[in-house]
């Protein structure tokens, strides 16, 4: 009986908290809409208004079948460049409208926050430029700026050397070759050498090399696999939202 009473109280408290949040959030949203002359989305992508269970199914099904980009293209083609959707209790607005994107990334950049990314991406990215705001963002951006100077970007020696390694792996006899893995390794190696002055060497790990390169191959390959899995795991966390807490994720933690 005591356990039943406690459960009843906890459920009541949870319901009261959700109700209070909803009642206080709605007026704030209405004021925001009036202040900024916000217009409603022209279309809605979810059949079940309360929980959006079809959206939950989609974000689980599409990655497993490697059709995430195809699904995104299909939604924007069918629902327009801006539409409303919902996952369980979380409403979202998805947009590919050029003016909206420009406002978020440029014209009104400071009006938007990355703070919701911290819990999801923080374990992998730390306090990097992709998940911090304000002064911390400016501090993270400053060390990166010299890398994008005209002279630095124009220097193609690194890309040329890695491209030659890449070409060694492509058959000349018309055989079928898996390019995705090669391109991923090329991108990882060139980006790390460009940004940090030292390549991860994942291409060398695949094609083999001389002496020290061969000895380091296992280390490079292990880094590449871990980094690749950690990125995929972050994407899964983004899709699941708070439901990710219900997932046993030892492999993801080990990869990080």
What's the pLDDT, averaged over the residues?
79
Query: Which stretches are low in confidence, meaning pLDDT under 50 for 5 or more residues running?
Result: none
What percentage of the residues does DSSP assign to strands (E)?
5-15%
> Could you tell me how far the N terminus lies from the C terminus, measured between alpha carbons in angstroms?
45 Å
| Content-based structural category | mainly alpha
E-strand count: 3
Instruction: Spell out the helices and strands N to C.
Output: HEHHEEHHHHHHHHH
Instruction: Sum up the overall morphology in one term.
Output: globular
Radius of gyration in whole Å, from Cα? 24 Å
What portion of residues is helical?
55-70%
* Count of individual helical segments: 12
Taking strands numbered 1, 2, ... along the chain, how are they ordered across the largest sheet?
1-2-3
Task: Characterize the main sheet.
Answer: 3 strands, mixed
């Amino acid at each position: 009986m005591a356990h039943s009473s406690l459960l009843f109280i906890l459920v009541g408290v949870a319901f009261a908290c959700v109700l209070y949040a909803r009642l206080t959030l709605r007026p704030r949203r209405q004021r925001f809409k009036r202040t900024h002359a916000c217009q409603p989305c022209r279309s809605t992508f979810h059949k079940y208004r309360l929980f959006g269970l079809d959206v939950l199914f989609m974000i689980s099904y599409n990655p497993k079948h490697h059709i995430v980009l195809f699904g995104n293209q299909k939604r924007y083609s069918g629902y327009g460049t801006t539409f409303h959707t919902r996952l369980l209790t979380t409403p979202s607005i998805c947009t590919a409208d050029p003016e909206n994107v420009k406002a978020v990334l440029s014209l009104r950049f400071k009006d938007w926050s990355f703070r919701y990314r911290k819990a999801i991406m923080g374990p992998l990215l730390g306090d990097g430029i992709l998940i911090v705001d304000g002064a911390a963002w400016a501090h993270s951006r400053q060390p990166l700026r010299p890398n994008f100077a005209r002279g630095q970007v124009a220097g193609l020696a690194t890309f040329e050397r890695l491209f030659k390694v890449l070409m060694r792996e492509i058959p000349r006899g018309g055989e079928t070759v898996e390019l995705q893995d090669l391109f991923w390794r090329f991108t990882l190696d060139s980006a790390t050498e460009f940004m940090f002055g030292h390549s991860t060497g994942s291409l060398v790990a695949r094609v083999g090399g001389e002496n020290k390169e061969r000895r380091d191959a296992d280390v490079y390959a292990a880094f590449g696999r871990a980094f690749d899995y950690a990125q995929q795991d972050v994407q899964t966390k983004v899709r699941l939202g708070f439901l990710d807490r219900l997932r046993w994720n030892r492999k993801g933690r080990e990869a990080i």
